Amino acid sequence: MVPISANQELELSSDAVVMRQQELVSVLACMREELDDHRLAINENTQETSSAYEFLNEISRRMDKMSERLDELTLLIKGQPSKAFDIKPLSSREKDVFHAIYVLTETQPFASYEQIARKAVLAKEQVVGVITTMMHKGVPLQKKLDGSVAFVKLDPAFRELQAKKNVIGLNSLLTSWLA
User: Which of 144, 145, 94 is nearest to 122 (CA)?
Assistant: First the structure.
């Protein structure tokens, strides 16, 4: 056997290192290809999912439109249901308080009892009692509390009906409404 010198050993060991590096590079290249393929598949699946989501949203929008049209047709066939308000006749003081609420809630969503009392030229305690009797007589008022302050307003459908048909029977002159 021929003895191997230190130089030859170094060359052989460097060849092994180079071969290992080449193997490592090829393994990494294969892994990169697999990852690229996997990334492409994910992107394709994401695009498919996105288009399916858009399709379902479009179907949902169309179904909503169909539902609205069906509701319109039903209302045309059956007629619009109108709220029936059974209001008992009001006293003149109740009409004054009603008028105050009606006027005050034209410019703001709710009116406080204090505002109503000032507008109707009554004490707050009287307004509280009158509003209670008005509600017992069927006037649809909505109440809300903000802390310790009570607010009222007319039911919007009743307000519109009152404007069109004067259900309450207010006979006051137009000039007194502007006061």
Answer: 94
